[in-house]
Design a protein that fits this description.
The protein has one domain: Mitochondrial import inner membrane translocase subunit tim13 like domains (Helix Hairpins, Orthogonal Bundle). About 90% of the residues lie in helices and about 0% in strands. The longest helix is centred in the middle third of the chain and has 79 residues. The N and C termini lie far apart (about 80 Å). It is found in: Mitochondrion inner membrane. Belongs to the small Tim family.
Length: about 120
């Protein structure tokens, strides 16, 4: 629901911005009820240009965003591989420590028995 509400809000903001911008730049005479041909043509061109620019910007944004997402995924995979390698290295060190501990205990037991 939040996503749909945000889309509606974004659309209404864009619509209001286009309306305000094109009205301010195209409508010259506020004394008449109807728009002149020049005003209609100006408003049509204004909306068309704004829409085209907006579509181009969105296309570029989508392309750039997909590249950014791919780089982020590669970074995450690299970090995961690094963490996995570190975890394996720590596990090997722990195993080496555990294997070395019985040898030390056996050596100390044999030293005690020869001293007695």
């Amino acid at each position: 629901m939040d996503y749909e509400l945000r889309n509606i809000k974004d659309f209404l903001q864009l619509y209001n911005k286009i309306t305000d911008m094109c009205f301010n730049s195209c409508v010259d005479n506020l004394f008449g009820r109807d728009l002149s041909r020049e005003e209609i043509s100006c408003a049509d061109n204004c909306v068309l240009k704004f829409t085209n620019v907006n579509q181009r910007l969105l296309k570029v944004y989508v392309d750039v965003q997909s590249d950014i997402n791919q780089r982020r995924m590669a970074e995450v995979e690299t970090q995961q591989a690094k963490m996995l390698a570190e975890a394996q290295q720590q596990q090997q060190q722990q195993q080496a420590t555990v294997q070395a501990t019985p040898e030390v205990a056996t050596a100390s037991i044999s030293t005690e028995s020869t001293a007695a």
